[in-house]
Design a protein that fits this description.
This protein is an all-alpha fold. The protein has 2 helices and no strands.
Length: about 70
């Protein structure tokens, strides 16, 4: 919370809460759909590129924010 401006903290907390609330319902739905239509390995094949993209964006933003704070 030290890196987020005070005026935007509610937005960030609300967004994080929404993601945390939706994950338990969307995760099994996604997994069940993929398992119903394809082999279980496709769960990982489809998920790994998303993890790589989100991880890259998170690291890029962390480096950018670190420069601003220092």
């Amino acid at each position: 919370m030290t890196q987020v401006p005070r005026q935007q903290q509610g937005t960030y907390v609300g967004t994080a809460g929404m993601i945390i609330a939706l994950a338990p319902s969307l995760g099994p739905t996604y997994g069940g759909t993929v398992l119903d239509l394809l082999d279980w390995r496709y769960n990982f094949i489809f998920t790994l590129p998303l993890i790589a993209i989100f991880g890259w964006v998170a690291i890029k933003n962390a480096i950018k924010n670190r420069r601003i704070v220092e």
